Amino acid sequence: MEKITSKDNRWVKEYAKLASLKSYRSQSGRFALEGVKLVCEAFQSGIRLPVVLVTGKCLERSGTDLAQAMEWGEWFLIPEELESKLTQQISPQGIYAIGEKLDKILLPDTIKKSGKYVMLCGLQDAGNVGTIIRTAEALGLNGVIATAGTCDFYNPKVLRGSMGSVFRMPCCIVGEEGRFLTELSAAGVQTCASVVDPGAIPIGEAVFRDPCVLLIGNEGNGLSLRTSVLCEQCVTIHMKGKTESLNASMAACILLWEMTK
Amino acid sequence: MEKITSKDNRWVKEYAKLASLKSYRSQSGRFALEGVKLVCEAFQSGIRLPVVLVTGKCLERSGTDLAQAMEWGEWFLIPEELESKLTQQISPQGIYAIGEKLDKILLPDTIKKSGKYVMLCGLQDAGNVGTIIRTAEALGLNGVIATAGTCDFYNPKVLRGSMGSVFRMPCCIVGEEGRFLTELSAAGVQTCASVVDPGAIPIGEAVFRDPCVLLIGNEGNGLSLRTSVLCEQCVTIHMKGKTESLNASMAACILLWEMTK
Q: What percent of chain B stands above pLDDT 90?
């Protein structure tokens, strides 16, 4: 295995750029992923990993788990001192891969036919986005839609929070929310806005058709009125305690649970 | 307002010790909390704040929000350079308070009478513990029980994740799990173990009595068999996708939702 020792090596710089810049991920069609489990999940999901940087310690510990993935792509040995250029983790696992985004784009035509989908409208917290994708997969949803203003699916924190679900769930990014929702409605897709409003339908009483898209709003402001009026129904979770509201991923969890059960 | 400039000041050291040491929090009955919102929530919940360290910038920005709390306790002005001794936040808000734990201990006698409770058995992730307490409050539970091995309620990350719910929810810590569960059962309290087991009762079909305690296990290993056999029933969430399981706080969210609705 070839060694890399310089922090100016092209792959070290390429990895760091992919880890930090959404625009570069978008332009290159590649992304950065770290950790043994995530690398294995990506490989098993059919993601191509053209370049992998790994420490000797990681190979010693996890060589068996990585054996299959090692048959593909170029692997480079890096010293532990280089890791600080690659990760913000306090206890990194010593493996950094460049992956090629999978072409598993969810098409409006698929959504119009059948299935249950969640649509993330402007969510900013990468941890929330990752957790919601993971929950959506666990509960059997058919795909995840995000507005352009939502945190990137290939953001390192989203990947980590989703535990690899990003690699498996069909997903798409929507430019113009309004036009997209109008198009869905015209095709008979049920659209449900989740809102904090005592006048909305309590989620336990809502009836979901198929196909159906549930919209979740931004952490701070929720869905805009402009967006929610375009939806067929507004649903809500009635709160009993003093907390202002559940956090976005907990609320999403309850909504998706009721939608799919 | 008196000024503190030295990192060796007794309150700076006291705060740092309370923020980092569970044993010291336990021994002193005090804890460390940071951020404008959390300080206000604590004050409104009746928590005494004998010492508060604050930067000039924080006072300028949030003086109005803090006005009521400022009538109590000793407030000290600190320079921004001192903040690195007090916080691990990347963008700290400049306010650090020492609080006195509230005496709102949940007694076994209260649990035996009525209510719905969640019991955290060995949870290690402070973010999960905080989120579960917040969710428990939002869904109207009557209290949170934790085993001695569970992450401390007054851990700074738990406080942050709970958004102040820790200050309001009745809670208690249980030394011997087995004896506690046996005692509850003998008193007619329903105990429900949440497990990953296709043979357990699907959570949507479970019947919950009052009083009732739902047990949630450790992130990695779940509940021990020794614990779950002591419970009246075992409940589970049936997973549809490929994710191994929901994360602990998402699973707890669905379980508590079904338990309280």
A: 82
Residue range A30-69, pLDDT digits in tens: 999 999 999 999 999 999 999 999 999 999 999 999 999 9
What one-character DSSP code corresponds to residue A113?
H
B163 interaction partners in chain A (CB closer than 8 Å) = 243-244, 247
In terms of CA atoms, which chain A residue is nearest residue B165?
A: A243
Q: Which of B30, B20, B86, B26 is nearest to B53 (CA)?
A: B86
CB B97 within 8 A of CB B33: yes
The pLDDT of A19-36, averaged and rounded, is 94
User: Which residues of chain A neighbour B140 with C-beta distances below 8 Å?
Assistant: 240-241
**Residues 31-70 of chain A whose Cβ lies under 8 A from any Cβ of chain B:** none
Give the residue-averaged pLDDT of A115-120. 97
CB contact under 8 A, A135 and B165: no
Q: How many alpha carbons lie under 13 Å from residue B223 in its C-beta half-sphere? A: 27
Q: Is B188 left (phi over 0), alpha (psi -120 to 50) or beta?
A: left
Decide if B135 contacts B162 (C-beta within 8 A). Answer: no
Any A CB within 8 A of B137 CB: yes
Strands A190-194 and A212-216: parallel
Joined tokens for residue B120: 């955290």
Say if A247 is an interface residue toward chain B (CB within 8 Å).
yes
